[in-house]
Amino acid sequence: MNSPIKRAAVACLVMFALLMINVNYLQAVRAEGLSEDARNTRNYFERYAVQRGRITAGGKVILAQSKEASGDFKFLREYPDGKLYAHITGFFSPESASGIEAARNSLLDGSSPDLLLRRSIDLFTGEPTRGANVDLTINPKAQKTAYDALRQSGKRGAVVALNPKTGAILAMVSLPTYDPAELSGTDKGKVFGRYDELAKEKSQPLLNRNIDRTYPPGSTFKVVTAAAFLEDDSSRGPDTVVDAPQSLALPGTSVRLPNYGGAACGGGQVSLTFALEKSCNTPFGSMGMDLGYDKMREQTEKFGMGQQLGIPMSVAKSDFGKKEDQAAVAMASIGQRSNQMTPLQMAMIAAGIANDGTVMKPYLVHKITDAKGDSVEEAEPEELTEAVSSETAGKLREMMVSVVANGTANQAQVSGVQVAGKTGTAETADGQPPHAWFISFAPADDPQIALAVLVESGAANVGAEATGGGTAAPIARAVLEAVLNK
Amino acid sequence: MSEVAASPIPMPAKRRGAQLAMLAFAVAIVMGAYANVGLAIDGQIPSGMLTYGLSLGGLMLAAYLVLAKFAPWADPLILPLVTLINGLGLVMIFRLSESDSTLPSAKLASPSSQLLWTFIGVLLFSLTLIFLRDHRALQRLTYTAGALGLFLLVSPLIPFLGQEINGARIWIGIPGLGQLQPAEFAKLALVVFFAGYLVAKRDVLALAGRRLLFIDLPRARDLGPVLITWGVSLGVLVMQKDLGSSLLLFGTFVAMLYIATQRSSWVIIGILLFAGGAILAGMVFNHVQQRFEVFLNPGDPVLFDAVGGSGQLMQGLFAMGSGGILGTGLGQGHPEIIPLAFSDFIFAATGEELGLTGLMALLMLYALLVERGLRTSIAARDPFSKLLAAGLSFLLAWQIFIIVGGVTNLIPLTGLVTPFMSQGGSALLSNWILIALLVRMSDAARRPPPQAIQNEGMTQVFQR
Fold first, then answer.
1. What residues does the Penicillin binding protein A dimerisation domain cover (chain A) (predicted)?
2. B110 touches chain A (CB under 8 A)
3. CB nearest to A1's CB, from B255, B317, B386
4. Cα angle value A477/A479/A484 (rounded, 5°)
């Protein structure tokens, strides 16, 4: 009976060999695919296994932190003032993240190569790996003020404020907002359900309106046209007289470009300052046509348009518009037609003028320190572009001060401070209420803050009559006062 | 005289010292693994470590003493191998229970009850060795064993006695004790029956018959009792939806038939019977068909989410993939995610934390155990012992192949316990009895034949 037993023994060995080969195949060959499968919830536990770093503003105020928990997940993410900072911090959901949570994820969760030394030390001392802490440039007071002021308008919109000298982002509010805590829980079903709800909502609360989408900038863009006009000939100045007819013939069309509300603009021949103060369309339309598409586009690019920005979240590209006919140039020069800007881009234009013509690269992250407080990364202000000469910047500043002092933006006046600004009321489509814009910086002689305010079409309290001066400027004033401590 | 001393057959040594050392080594490995789990999860040596260590160590020492007294010539490797595998199973169950997860795999893992079952298992092992001095006594119980096996198989279907748990009616309730799966014991009884019956009938089974094409067909009346036993057991198992045990019994039966008759026609007939049965079951039972679809395409998203679909299998594969070559380390993975991580899927759970390295070692332990059993079979001196030892060893190997192959998607998944590792008393008890039988037979096989009394030169004992 021994020979069949020996054969049976060989059969058993073959079975074990098959099992061993298969286990090798699974755990060596297919291991990576299996461990990274989206349905492998281990990755999802891993996300909550590390104490993620904090996100703070001004070194003190906590925007996001990981708290130790019991149960399946070791640490849970908390957002103490979630709705206020939602578009900055973003959320940290079981399978994805947004905002700073996504943009600085590898530092927050400690996996970044920049933290290799820290991890090695922790390995030796037996301490668990902890993520790095991210401190933002946000000024909590400015953020709160901007949030409250925009909320009072009862409508969707965006406010972004920069330090014009550095590019540091002081406030960034987008409404409507959401609570990142709802998207950062560990209950996948709940989180995904809530995300779907938010994603489907018509008001698009997940969108950071400052950087995720573009809008026609309307009259605020006239400062760019004025800048191009002044740069084109250095003998021009605020007092240069320009043609300001009641309406402007647009070549190649039967349409005429009127001023806002069809009003006259002075006596038909006005100073550049007056045209900007009253935000007349015709002089800037004709300036744009005289300068031509290329010069207008070039000037816009000098303010940073078209650059791929990461603050560190990536910013949608603004665009002056396609090269079409002269009529299109005229319309784009007053911020209409296919001219599309992000609120951040408009704030950068104000900041560039405030900073003697130099646009600084906008940034949100002030400093990153590891769990022990050692610096990993510190922001250094960087010049982005040279938008206009210092002389042109001075002339533009003088005119924008006048806009606030004597023109459409008187609601942005702050007592004891010279405020520079420009209003905008952008038509969106026929019959649709316009977007209200305001860009500004202050104090004019030593700018500490530059900002852009956008209130999307049809603010509830003002209906179809929303204007940059009436709706957006008061929001800007509140933020200016908060930052300048007035 | 000197010829007797220089016998051509080398005398097997008892190797009891080596066995004790290996046993201590196995217990030490298990204790190290315990400490590892505690350190990884709580940062400290588990509080019950001393109790566990002492009870497992004491238990194995007792088993060793019983073995040394009642089966001194037994194979020295078998007990240490089983100790290590059983200990690793205990560690994995302990590890799952230590997880602070609320998932069922963590909640239902019960290391204390498994330790208790191990204790009873070793007790039965010892009692078997003490009371079954000569395993050939079992040969006289051939038909009793067959009847007992059948009764045990059918017993869950008996009203009041049988209980249905998780949709499978494979349990009987024992008042005051809990539930047992009689099928686990039935397979032992049936292997004893097969061995006894086949030994008695092997000549007619092997020789009588007609040759058809290339296959020697046996006579129908020789086949009868065997086919009936097989058919009834298979039928009952299919009715109880216990595919794993059904496949296990069938494969073991075919293997024993082949060993007894040495005719490969049995294997071919067996495979054809199996294929027919599988196709029929696939047509009749939805769950069989689904198992097969899952096997072919486990990653399919629809099957993944389906009830009774591939979700469970994939969770096991995910665990093994996440473990990779070296594993996450005990206590540092998430085996509690796998459904039934403490029973059917304990192999995958082990793979996550001990990695490919650990699983290769574990498979090696199982392979060694099986081969030691088959070695016993070769060394055994009578046909019944040979067939019984081979049958029991093959039962073990085949069971490991079915469950591990199923969990690793080498073959379609059918539920079976992983011997000595899965949580659950019935399987642990019956497997310890199986080991006791192997130990008893290896003792008989390795025991030197009666020697000539050295100083009585006149008497000669002739060795065969």
1. 52-134
2. no
3. B386
4. 95
